[in-house]
Amino acid sequence: MFSMLFIRRKKFILLKRVKYKNRQVLLVFFVMMMLVISMKKKLLIIFLALVTGTILAFVTLVYFEKPFKEEYLNIYALQTGAYRSYENALKEREKFESAVILENGGLYLVLVGASTSETGLLKISGVLNKKGINYYQKELQIKESDQEKFWEYNMLLERATKEETILLLNTKILETMVQV
Questions:
Q1: For the chain, how many helices (H) and strands (E)?
Q2: Quick one: the chain helix, strand, coil %, rounded to 5?
Q3: H or E segment and range at residue 41
Q4: pLDDT digit string (tens) for 12-45?
Q5: What is the pTM of this model?
Q6: What are residue 109's phi and psi, to 5 degrees?
Q7: 94: nearest Cα among 79, 110, 108
Q8: How far apart are the C-alpha atoms of 147 and 161, rounded to whole Å?
Q9: Which end of the chain has fewer CB atoms within 10 angstroms, the N or the C?
Q10: What domains lie within the chain, and their CATH numbers?
């Protein structure tokens, strides 16, 4: 950090705590201002507009240079078990038709259902209850960039009435989760 003086119309402007990164931009601005002072009034206005636009563009670029924080979408999942070893998770998965294994925080989760909404989850849980499958409801997070696939299947799931259709859509949602 440092301080720099600019001369503009015989007045001093003190800019405090300017970051080192911006030093070159400010030096170029200072040189340009010295040239502009000697120009005619109309050229001065045009030049100041160009310099102001350049500085605003640079500040915007520096501000948005930081990577954006990824947004996550909550998914409701129906889990039958969580295992430390993959072999035990495979044994549990074999008991169910469309179960998938998802690694989360060092545990292997065996999921038998998933939905982006509670309505879809209720339909899936109703079918699983009829089959006598015990499960635990859990919330998982996926990247927001991958959520379109889930919304499409979930929209169809909310409209589905047949048990076969609900199970098929549930399988597609689970397969999509494994791909993410």
A1: 6, 6
A2: 55, 25, 20
A3: helix 41-64
A4: 444 444 455 566 677 777 777 766 666 666 777 7
A5: 0.58
A6: -90, 135
A7: 110
A8: 23
A9: N
A10: 2-64 (no CATH), 72-179 (3.30.70.1070)
